[in-house]
Design a protein that fits this description.
The chain has 111 residues and is of the alpha/beta class. Helices cover 45% and strands 15% of the residues. It has one domain: Response regulator (Rossmann fold).
């Protein structure tokens, strides 16, 4: 069973400005933000999420250097988003999975 099936979550990928805009028309329990999407600039993506869904819970997941990940988390927090975790791809998928499981165990979906 996959993590998505286990947690009973819906996953929507947004890798372009248009798909991001469309995906933000719905409300999400958690937004997983990958900072290394080739067609999305990290800071403008954070601003777009903050404008469309202020107060959203987000997790930042990136292959970039930890300093960059933490700087983007600060920008997200300063713009009214709630950064629940920052995870480097260097830490591996297991770390991402652990954080997702903790979040969904601690918080009912849709809250």
């Amino acid at each position: 069973m996959s993590l998505v099936e286990e947690l009973l979550v819906e996953v929507v990928a947004a890798s372009t400005p248009d798909t991001l805009k469309n995906s933000l028309e719905s409300s999400w329990s958690i937004i997983l933000l990958d900072l290394t999407m080739p067609e999305l600039a990290p800071i403008s993506t954070i601003w777009q999420i903050a404008e469309a869904q202020p107060g959203s819970d987000i997790m930042i997941y990136s292959g970039g250097p930890p300093e960059r990940i933490h700087a983007m988390a600060e920008i997200a927090n300063e713009n009214g988003l709630n950064v629940r975790a920052t995870i480097s791809k260097r830490q591996g998928f297991g770390e991402l999975q652990r954080h997702l499981e903790e979040l969904f165990d601690a918080k009912p979906l849709g809250d």
